[in-house]
Design goal:
Strand order of the largest sheet: 1-2
Number of helices: 14
Number of strands: 2
Largest sheet: 2 strands, antiparallel
CATH class of the largest domain: Mainly Alpha
Strand content: under 5%
Radius of gyration: 25 Å
């Protein structure tokens, strides 16, 4: 009797499994568009072949925060791109899974939809989806193979369901991973700083902030120092406070340039020491500064432009013009400029749950 009892129980158990499978709701693709909010910023040009959907953005968000993408299961994209710091890192060179430091300071990951000139400091990734996969494979960062990532994700029914909702099938590929990460990063938007509120007539600048704004926007004038400005908008202009260019901003003299930057991609000697011009939105949150994180504070950055320009062959001509005289900024002017830069901090953005860790 015991033998038959065991057989019956086993059969019932197997039938119950098949019964559960049959009653499981089928997963279907959901192309519901994601509503991108961007305030007074101009409408971005999103990839025609990767328009934002609710499911795609959410899948990208999960991947962005999941350490499963790294070889040791400890490092996620968000490890070096933290929301509270404007999606960058506060260390000069982030440590990867092997405890080794990277070679450059982590760039901020927001308002990526407004970038049209490649990605990374040197622009080695043509599209944002290309950029998304390289840190995974970099031995100094996440040190994992794409095949291993695919195998790990494919072992999760939840992820297979997520990929089905986003792409129509549960087949997981590196291309789909890249597209999902691209969608999430394109959804991260900062547009509600005090400056934006001032532009909309909803906030007022202090006297110091207003003086700083005028300094920021006014060009350098060596002939009339009393009317000369800091000329920041020359490189950090427009709604996103950048210019989609690669420039040499006078960090090192010709003989002291050890990181050739853009030249490593274009192989053009004229690009030696040029790096992607970053946005100044949320600049208060994203220390340290420059591609190598050499400046710990904004005060040091202002001092560099005011009196620290180094001459090299590819130095921007507008900065070269200031090399002998500096920007004529006294202590009050530097403080005013600093106070204006702080109006570019977007506190609603760094607390927006749409960009936060979905696993918490």
């Amino acid at each position: 009797m015991n033998k038959y009892y065991v057989i019956i129980i086993t059969i019932l158990f197997v039938l119950s499994i098949f019964s559960c499978d049959k009653t499981r709701e089928p997963i279907e693709q959901d192309d519901t568009p994601y509503e991108l909010t961007f305030g007074a910023l101009p409408a971005p040009t999103l990839p025609e072949d990767n328009q934002l959907t609710q499911q795609g953005v959410e899948l990208g968000r999960k991947l962005f925060y999941d350490p499963i993408l790294s070889s040791d299961g400890e490092q996620a994209c968000a490890s070096c791109h933290r929301q509270e710091h404007g999606f960058t890192d506060t260390t000069r060179f982030s440590l990867g899974v092997q405890g080794l430091p990277g070679k450059r300071q982590a760039m901020s990951v927001f308002n990526m939809a407004w970038h049209s000139n490649e990605f990374f400091w040197d622009g080695r990734a043509h599209l944002l989806r290309d950029q998304a996969l390289l840190p995974i494979q970099d031995e100094l960062e996440m040190d994992e193979s794409l095949d291993n990532v695919i195998n790990k994700l494919s072992a999760s029914q939840d992820y297979k369901d997520d990929f089905t909702r986003t792409f129509g099938t549960e087949d997981i590929t590196s291309e789909k991973i890249a597209l999902a990460l691209e969608q999430f990063m394109n959804s991260i938007v900062s547009h509600d700083s005090k400056y934006d509120q001032w532009k909309a007539g909803k906030a007022s600048l202090t006297e110091s902030e207003e003086r700083g704004r005028l300094l920021y926007e006014t060009e350098y004038n060596p002939f009339f120092p009393e009317f000369s400005g800091a000329d920041c908008a020359h490189c950090h202009g427009g709604a996103n406070f950048e210019n989609d260019l690669y420039m040499n901003n006078g960090l090192d003299s010709e003989d002291n340039i050890t990181d050739i930057g853009r030249e490593s991609v274009t192989l053009n000697p004229a690009d030696k020491g040029k790096f992607k011009v970053p946005t100044l939105r949320n600049i208060e949150l994203t220390a340290p500064y420059m591609h190598d994180g050499r400046f710990a504070t904004l005060e040091e950055v202002i001092d560099h432009y005011n009196e620290g320009i180094k001459v090299s062959n590819s130095l921007d001509q507008a900065l070269l013009a200031t090399e002998e005289t500096g920007l004529f900024l006294d202590e009050q002017a530097k403080l005013d400029l600093l106070n204006f830069l702080k109006t570019l901090t977007d506190y609603s953005f760094i607390n927006d749950e749409r960009y936060s860790d979905p696993f918490e």
